[in-house]
UniProtKB/TrEMBL annotation:
GO CC list: cytosol
Source organism of the structure: Idiomarina xiamenensis 10-D-4
UniProt GO molecular function: DNA-binding transcription factor activity
InterPro entries xref list: Tscrpt_reg_Rrf2, WH-like_DNA-bd_sf, WH_DNA-bd_sf
Annotated Pfam families: Rrf2
Stretches assigned to coiled coil: none
Name of the protein described by the UniProt record: BadM/Rrf2 family transcriptional regulator
Amino acid sequence: MRTDSRLSRMLHVLLHMARDQQPKTSQQIATMLSTNAAVVRRTMGGLRRAGYVQSEKGHGGGWRIACDLNQVSLYDIYQAVGTEKIFTIGFDHSHPDCLVERVVNDAIGEALSDAERRLIKRLQSVSLGDLAQQFSRRYPT
């Protein structure tokens, strides 16, 4: 099963954009992520709609940060990127009348709900600014 890496990839891009202060074209970002520019434009579109980036057309144009990094949480980016589910673990519903299946699904559901609440809380507590500061401390220029 393939993992959904959109959040980490977009955080990577945003931190590069914040450090460089220069606009990045969709093609430059695509090269950085080993993907194509159309995928980048589609994903960055969600960030633009949320007000985290802006795009400028023409020579010297590209994507720029349009927000205060300290005011945007990792959860905000997660939502803007459009990832549907945090966890892909699912339930078996092949025997809805089976009491054992119900107990198993209840236990899994409870564990997933608890894990999702904790993860969301953690993502909400870390800002893009926090990541930028961590990077600067670890790898000063």
